[in-house]
Design goal:
By secondary structure, the chain is mainly alpha-helical. It contains 13 helices and no strands. It folds into two domains: 84 residues, no CATH class; 162 residues, no CATH class. α8 runs antiparallel to α9.
Length: 259
């Protein structure tokens, strides 16, 4: 009976298997977080578990798509875990959170929300550009692209493509953005009490300062799911603002400094 059930599971749709895997991970990590007496870290534990499994999957198969390279989870085309964790469903999920926003709470952010957006984009770009320069990059376009990756992993490729840099630099910018996103997901629930991240206005300012939409959404989900729409909304504005400013104003500034 067990063998028949296993064979049936192995032959199931790979997307269904991927959903079952994620649900199982969330169930286990939630139980662990309850045992530790801190339920808010369940999402952070789930993210860490997913990263470990992705690493194991990549090392085992020699591929570069994590668990999507394992046939049972990804299928021949990798569309199991790959589709579930891909950009299409991610973006759909993020956009759908906007429907949970209450207008009266949105208005409370006021000017501070707008100011936070500019501070967040400019600060992230400067830090990324400085790191690029410290690592030895001298080309203004390359420095701008790496700095853009520190803004978000979406702004990086957009900037790199518009400035005509090599694919290696674009990949580096994406890596910088992904590290920022993952760290935001993991760290947010641990620092929420320290920064009073417990209301919609704080969530909007946090999203505007950090900016990585998936990272902010994941981190706020681990903190308080009711805050997710507010942080995700301003983080989305952050990405749009970065896409406008970095390839234009940011590049001109880097060319003035390092040309």
């Amino acid at each position: 009976m067990f063998q028949a059930a296993l064979e049936s599971f192995m032959g199931a749709d790979h997307l269904i298997i991927a959903i079952a895997l994620v649900a199982f991970i969330m169930l286990i990590t939630k139980k662990i977080s309850k045992m530790l007496g801190e339920e808010r870290i369940a999402s952070a534990l789930a993210i860490i578990t997913g990263l470990i499994l992705a690493y194991i999957g990549g090392r085992t198969t020699g591929g570069d798509s994590g668990l999507a390279d394992v046939y049972i989870f990804g299928g021949a085309s990798g569309l199991g875990v790959g589709l579930l964790g891909g950009s299409m469903i991610r973006d759909y999920t993020i956009i759908s959170t906007a429907y949970g926003v209450k207008t009266e709470n949105l208005k409370k952010a006021g000017p501070i929300g707008v100011i936070s957006l500019f501070i967040g984009v400019i600060f992230s770009f400067i830090v990324g550009a400085l790191i690029a320069r410290i690592l030895g990059y001298t080309n203004p376009a390359e420095i701008t692209t790496i700095g853009a990756g520190a803004v978000t992993f979406i702004v990086g490729p957009v900037t790199g493509t518009s400035l005509g840099v090599s694919s290696d630099i674009i990949a580096l910018s994406v890596a910088a953005g992904l590290v920022k996103s993952i760290l935001t997901m993991i760290i947010t629930p641990f620092i929420a009490d320290l920064i009073n991240l417990d209301n919609p206005t704080a969530a909007m300012v946090y999203g505007a300062l950090i900016g990585t939409t998936s990272g902010v959404a994941g981190g706020l989900a681990a903190t308080d799911k009711e805050l997710v729409p507010y942080g995700a909304m301003t983080a989305t504005f952050y990405t749009g603002l970065g896409t406008l400013l970095v390839p234009s104003v940011g590049f001109l500034l880097m060319r003035m400094l390092f040309a």
